[in-house]
């Protein structure tokens, strides 16, 4: 029995025996897992163009990084998908408006960035609603996409999001930029991920961060992330549309 069979077997036991701890961790946290409900990861056929790279940026906006990121994307005519934290939108309303005004897609990344797999349904709903309201009131845009913080979810989280008209979006390339591995290693990981997806005829959905969920008065630097974006958008063999799931 391989690990997938074990996970599938454990999934079949939901409701009677409950998920084994390892399988629950898989279903709740692994980006590609569909065990806790359907999520959007890549462009389905026949729209899949393997040159497509969806650049996604979580946790912003950040006064330290987002302006330069917008400059880089704008100069290249690239569109990003920004999963905004409500609390950060209230701190930087003009930046959030700039993201929308410059034609990028915005998504809901909750209000305060908790791990929703461990929160009661009422808190999940409140987090999504507060973020949605803040983005609408600040920018005039109504997000149609939702990304759970840490990618952590359980079936109720995805159900609540769908009921609110939000499509849950995960990713298929984990850059790991929150751990600051350095520019070279970050770029290598991203380029390998794109190549891997292309070999399988898939579009790429790249998880990056223009902020940190911990951003307070001393926001994290995302200089390496910005250099990676700069390197990617220069490539003529790739295209960078927003996500329209
Ligand atoms: Zn996040």
Ordered list of secondary-structure elements with their pairings:
Blueprint: H1 3-12, H2 21-29, E1 53-58, H3 66-76, E2 80-84, H4 86-91, H5 93-101, E3 105-108, H6 121-139, E4 145-146, H7 155-163, E5 167-168, E6 173-174, H8 183-199, E7 204-209, H9 223-233
Parallel strand pairs: 1-2, 1-7, 2-3, 4-5, 6-7
The structure holds zinc ion.
Zinc ion binds next to loops.
Low-confidence stretches: 1-11
Strand order across the biggest sheet?
A: 3-2-1-7-6
Bound ligands, named by name, code or SMILES: zinc ion
- SS element count, helices: 9
Which architecture of the largest domain per CATH? Alpha-Beta Barrel
Helix content: 40-55%
Strand tally is 7
Structural class: alpha/beta
Q: Give the full name of the CATH homologous superfamily of the largest domain.
A: Glycoside hydrolase/deacetylase
For the record, the CATH class of the largest domain is Alpha Beta
What integer value in Å does the Rg equal? Answer: 18 Å
Outline: globular
> How much beta, percentage-wise?
5-15%
Task: Provide mean pLDDT, rounded.
Answer: 92
- Look up the CATH topology of the largest domain: TIM Barrel
Largest sheet: 5 strands, parallel
Short characterization:
By secondary structure, the protein is an alpha/beta fold. It has helices spanning 3-12, 21-29, 66-76, 86-91, 93-101, 121-139, 155-163, 183-199, 223-233; strands at residues 53-58, 80-84, 105-108, 145-146, 167-168, 173-174, 204-209.
């Amino acid at each position: 029995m391989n690990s997938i069979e074990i996970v599938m077997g454990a999934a079949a036991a939901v409701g009677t025996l409950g998920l084994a701890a390892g399988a629950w961790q898989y279903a709740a946290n692994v980006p590609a897992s569909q065990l806790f409900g359907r999520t959007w990861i890549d462009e389905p056929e026949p729209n899949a163009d393997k040159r497509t790279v969806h650049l996604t940026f979580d946790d912003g906006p950040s006064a330290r990084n987002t302006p330069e990121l917008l400059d880089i994307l704008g100069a290249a005519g690239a569109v990003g998908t920004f999963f905004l934290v409500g609390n950060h939108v209230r701190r930087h309303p003009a930046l959030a408006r700039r993201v929308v005004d410059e034609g990028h897609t915005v998504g809901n990344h909750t209000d305060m960035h908790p791990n929703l797999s461990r929160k009661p349904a009422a808190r999940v709903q409140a987090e999504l609603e507060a973020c949605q309201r803040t983005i609408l009131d600040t920018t005039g845009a109504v997000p149609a996409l939702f990304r759970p913080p840490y990618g952590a979810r359980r079936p109720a989280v995805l159900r609540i999001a769908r009921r609110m008209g939000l499509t849950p979006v995960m990713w298929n390339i984990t850059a790991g930029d929150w751990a600051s591995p350095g520019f070279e290693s970050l770029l290598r990981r991203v380029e390998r991920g794109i190549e891997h997806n292309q070999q399988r005829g898939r579009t790429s959905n790249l998880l990056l961060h223009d902020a940190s969920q911990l951003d307070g008065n001393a926001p994290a630097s995302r200089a390496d992330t910005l250099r990676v974006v700069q390197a990617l958008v220069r490539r003529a063999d790739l295209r960078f549309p927003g996500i329209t799931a």
